[in-house]
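Task: complex structure prediction.
Instruction: return structure tokens for all chains below.
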Amino acid sequence: MLAVEGINAYYKDLQALWGVSLRVGEGELVALVGPNGAGKTTTLRVISGLLRPASGSVLLEGRSLAKEPAHRIVELGISQVMEGGRVFAGLTVLENLELGAFGAEARKLKDQSLRWVFSIFPRLEERYAQRAGTLSGGERQMLAIGRALMSKPRLLLLDEPSFGLAPLLVQQIFQMIAEINRQGVTVLLVEQNVRVALELTNRAYVLENGRIVGEGSGDALLTFESVRSAYLGCA
Amino acid sequence: MLRPLAQNLVFGILVGGLYGLVAVGLSLVFGVTKFLNVAHGELLMLGGYAAFWLFTLLGLDPFASLPLVVIFLVLIGLVLYKLLFSRMVKLTEDNKIKNTLLIGFGLSLIFQNVALRLWSADDRGITTAYSGQAFTLLGIRFPVVRVASLAIALVVLLALHLFLRRTYLGKAIRATVEDWEAATVTGIDVHKVYLVSFLLGAALAGVAGSLVSVGYSIQPAMGLEWTLIALVVMVLGGLGNILGTFVAGLALGVTQALTSTWIGGEYREIVALLLFLLVLVFRPQGLFGAREG
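Output:
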């Protein structure tokens, strides 16, 4: 479904990604793990069109996204949840969700999508008239994911959905992500919480210093030497 | 003693409504795009001349010609945006502000001098059959034209408020003000949002210009004063707060009126700028703005 091939990307003069390639198949839940500053978020920004790579390509079902503006990429089926959720604090929960269905196609299906999102996150329905700024951290994350789902994406990019949340909430959020995936949405998940991420996913890539250094099934990577020593704290 | 004071207060409120209208336009554009368009006052000047010539040459009533003036300003805004401001979109916020300041100053010089050349430096104003009419309440005079102008300013701002609250595009504008990157990955075309906001700002300047040309007077060099007023009111009101900005406009109008009464008309601008500095120092989020975060 998604093919990222040989991406080199820069922030000003600083190269952040070095020949990054990865693939996500239809229906998969793939994780991208690695330490802080490895380039995980940068990879997502390249896929969603916020950052244009110096070379390499991003293909959605064989179609290059190089010339598509970022808001079009959403319409084409890739939706991103940014780190920290980045909900619109001054807008209500409902307004945030409505904006998620901004594209012409998605707007036609708005009511249906809204019911779908409320079925996954009943908490959002309870709080629909509240300003998003008044929500708790976990609710904000739910709203951010819900907003991303409103465009009926085929591929959902999640950037650190567990960031800053209590362990119990992290479990809940991950269960919801698994549920969204079961309902047919392909997921590419960026996580620092490696153990939880690897338990959840079919497959994972390990990113270090802007390069892909490992790939395998979640179970395999849990025993992968450098992953174990680096992120799980066991030698 | 009390009556002249009350009369001045009323005049202050009446002109303050126009201050609010001008400032809301500037504030909307700045809030969304981070373009600080210091030629905003010149847009108002052009709106004033448009209304003036429509009245003088075609005999169109200035209130009836408002929609035409708005269309004219939207077209000018479109040209300015496509030709100049759209090139600033990709810059960082700092550079956007700096570069648009330069563009704005350049534009204001060009517009001023072209207007001077075409229309001379004379003060102009629209004098309709009803221009001199006023009604008196408790011994205070209410000029009909200025009262109608305040009402129009209120109606326009209310319509803008509803547009931002109720429509998809309006909500997208509010979202873009908060976080343009998140808006982008939500599927909002922020370039379109920038354009719409810029055109709305130009349209509001046009409405204000029309109203100034009928209630007061216009001349080619008026733009800077109005830009300054708009900047002061924008900061007083707090960014992104339409009602707050409108009230701040009224407050500035009243402050200037009181200055004229007690100190002298020539100090009006100084008092406005003093107020501006005081707010920047003690309440940088504006009188009615919420703190960041």
